[in-house]
Amino acid sequence: MIEVDVKLKIGAFSLDIAFSNKANVTALFGRSGSGKSVTLNIIAGLMKPDSGYVRLDGEPLVDVEAGVFVPVSRRRIGLVFQESNLFPHLTVKQNLLYGRWFAPRGARRIDFDAVVETLGIGQLLSRPPARLSGGEKQRVAIGRALLSCPRLLLFDEPLASLDMERKLEIMPLIERIRDEFKVPIVYVSHAVEEVVRLAPCVVIIESGRVKFIGDPAIVLSRLESAPAEDRFELSSVLTARVDRESNGYGLTALKHPAGTIWLAGPAGPVGNEVRVVVKATDVVLSLARPEEISSRSLLSGTVANIKLDGPLATVEIELSENNYLLSMITKGALEELSLKPGSPVYALFKSAALDERSLGVRKVEEMTAPPAKADAGAAQAAFKDA
Ligand SMILES: Nc1ncnc2c1ncn2[C@@H]1O[C@H](COP(=O)(O)OP(=O)(O)OP(=O)(O)O)[C@@H](O)[C@H]1O
Predict the structure, then answer these.
(1) pTM, full prediction
(2) Fold assignment, 2-214
(3) Which DSSP symbol is given to 371?
(4) 235-385 — its CATH code?
(5) What are the ABC transporter domain coordinates in residue numbering (predicted)?
(6) Angle at Cα 238 formed by Cα 233 and Cα 241, nearest 5°?
(7) Lining residues, ligand 1, CB within 6 Å
């Protein structure tokens, strides 16, 4: 359990953050300059708050009023930054052992070989960091942090400097650390996909304050709590179940209470619960059920709220209880459709706009039996069902 209640003024910026969370991963999410890294630095002990406390499992790491400040070296917190910060003069193995050196003898519960195996870095042990790719460096940095047998791992945008392929390699490793090594994590990220996949709890930070805290699937999809990102970042999270494994066209039908979502790839076995991220700019609204249209996913709902911003409008659609979808359309379209709270609407988006890779189901052959006969007739029937 992490408890944070701190205030800090640095120059013109003032931070006043309070949250507590029992979940294994807490994501800190917010736009650039909102105070995520300062919060992380206070938890790590790299910055001292003006007032307040940080507690880990009830034990204060800092408590200004009580005069407690545990120095960084004694907090037993593992840090992983955007840049791996490996020691250039040490080999991978020496970098890893350096992390281990920080773990008190009695607390070395995390096994060197298990970490090397989990992170897939066995073949890199004798190399210097200069001979590693960006993704490999990050894996070693995660290993070094893990081998210090930390009580808490802090990740500050660990995937931000990597390309999509590398991100998709490392995300499952962070999931394994979360699930197998059971070290609690505080994870700073700008990426909705990372937050949704890794964290059951997100803290939305805006201008140094906590704006909302809760399940990312709810918090990120509501107008009142969605972070004030630029419009291309605004996304909703839909929770659905695999209804049918891939049809003849390789699409997977996901059952959502408001309709069917078609995903352009695998999503695991029938019944598997998945969360898909839909960008607000990808969602089209219609008053009538559209026919003969290329968009595959069609959900029905009711307009809950509307926020105007210059020539654009963000429409929040209630799909089912605690299930919302944001759509960004033009103000002109909003007026032409006479949309207002309570209006029934259909929301459409293209399967091609959904990134099935962020679900973490990568090997089609492992998850889905090949279709007995991928004939076009069966596939078209599947489409009609949708
Ligand atoms: N050491 C410092 N001295 C002065 N101001 C600082 C210092 N560190 C951070 N700030 C300021 O505090 C504010 C919050 O910075 P912070 O790095 O926490 O933002 P962030 O949310 O992590 O942003 P990003 O996503 O871009 O990393 C910014 O206005 C920043 O300029």
Answers:
(1) 0.84
(2) Rossmann fold (3.40.50)
(3) P
(4) 2.40.50.100
(5) 1-232
(6) 145
(7) 10-11, 13, 30, 32-38
d(CA 237, CA 225): 13
Residue owning the nearest CA to atom 6 of ligand 1: 10
Q: Which long-range contacts link 82-88 to residues 24+ away (Cβ below 8 Å)? A: 82/156, 82/157, 82/158, 82/160, 82/161, 83/161, 84/129, 84/134, 84/137, 84/138, 84/140, 84/141, 85/141, 86/129, 86/132, 86/137, 86/140, 86/141, 86/144, 87/129, 88/128, 88/129, 88/130
- Domain chopping of the chain, boundaries: 2-214, 235-385
Q: Tell me: pLDDT of 386 over 90.
A: no
From atom 8 of ligand 1, which residue's Cα is the shortest distance away? 38
Per DSSP, helices labelled H in 148-219 are 164-176, 192-198, 216-219
The yes-or-no verdict on residue 287 having pLDDT over 80 is yes
What ligand 1 atom has the least distance to the C-alpha of 188?
22
Which residues is 20 bridged to in the sheet? 3
**What is the Cα–Cα distance from 253 to 263, expressed in whole angstroms?**
6
- Sheet containing 209-214: which strands, arranged edge to edge? 68-69, 59-63, 51-56, 2-10, 13-21, 209-214, 201-206, 25-29, 185-189, 152-156, 77-80
* Angle CA 180–182–183, to nearest 5: 130
Residue nearest to atom 1 of ligand 1 (CA): 10
- Name residue 51's amino acid: S
Q: What pLDDT does 29 receive?
A: 93
Cα 184 to middle of ligand 1, angstroms: 24
The model's pLDDT over 158-203, given as tens digits with 9 standing for 90+, comes to 998 888 888 888 888 898 888 888 889 999 998 888 898 899 999 9
The single-letter code of the amino acid at 36 is K
What six digits make up the tokens of 215?
């399940």
Q: Counting atoms of ligand 1 from 1, which one is nearest the CA of 35?
A: 18
Which tokens go with 42?
């206070």
ipTM of the complex: 0.94
pLDDT beyond 80 at 292: no
